[in-house]
Amino acid sequence: MIPFTITQAPSTHEAIQAAAAGGRYIAGGTTLIDLMREEVERPDRLIDINALPLKHIRAEGPDLIIGALARMSEVAVHPDTRRLHPVIGEALIEGASPQLRNMASMGGNLLQRVRCPYFRMLDAPCNKRIPGSGCSAIDGLNIGHAILGTSDQCAATHPSDVAVALVALEATMRVQGPQGERTFPVEELYRLPGDTPHLEHTLLPGELIVEIRVPGLSYSRRARYLKVRDRASYEFALIAAAAVIDLDGGVIREARLAVGGAGTRPWRLRAVEQALKGKRLERATLEAAARTAVEGARPLSGNQYKVELLPRTIVRALELAGEIA
């Protein structure tokens, strides 16, 4: 690990000033410290933001408000999370070990880096680590890589589970930076790799995630998060799906769907949602709608199974959501 300094920010304003001058925010550090140890990330100045008043979790009417420094474990079990949006708690519990959930912040979880093994191998070409060096995964080991939103430069999936649930629920985030404050959908935080896979998010220099707002839905309790992975705990998704449905006598009035493990960012499935609207919650209908999810898919040599696994996971997540009273 290269030498670095760390200072504690006493206020949001001072944290933003320090970041604008070249510092890096750190909260739980569950991703950044690992990457610094491996010298994939090499910041020389860290700004400890744990003293900032951003740990709140509360309801505002039907909406759930989550401070960026709230820990994953606290959000997962909070009464307002369980009452308003239990699918968020499901995604958080599936997302990491208990030790990591106790440390990791919500903002840090949304900004975690990819888990492509080549990203962490300093002797392997990786366009995320060194732009223009190449992508080892394209012709290498790519069983866990994306089939949607890929480019010739990168096919790494985004690893966050809770981001998938937040995208399905159309959550927004509030950020503050040197140019002031702005609010935008969580979905718009993430960039497609295109020709610049090293640019992973849309935050401007010095911007700090302050808060996440999840809008209330009358049917948000009829939701499930289903994660398919190689082992039962502490493993990233091969495919995951967050499904939220509004049922009326067995007919789907509305559906919200997003998936992880399939795309280079948390992937909203609007075409599937539209195909389900007004249809009965029956397997044949769900299967027909779910097949639209893989239109335009670009599988690699090792992940072609995801073209079949993705629709199956969507169908099962919808069925599980439909079973909730």
From TrEMBL:
InterPro entries: CO_DH_flav_C, CO_DH_flav_C_dom_sf, Diverse_Substr_Oxidored, FAD-bd_PCMH, FAD-bd_PCMH-like_sf, FAD-bd_PCMH_sub1, FAD-bd_PCMH_sub2, Mopterin_DH_FAD-bd. The keyword Flavoprotein applies. The keyword Transmembrane does not apply. Residues 1-219 form the FAD-binding PCMH-type domain. GO terms for molecular function: FAD binding; oxidoreductase activity. Pfam families: CO_deh_flav_C (PF03450), FAD_binding_5 (PF00941). SMART domains: CO_deh_flav_C. Keywords: FAD, Flavoprotein. This is Xanthine dehydrogenase family protein subunit M. It comes from Bosea caraganae.
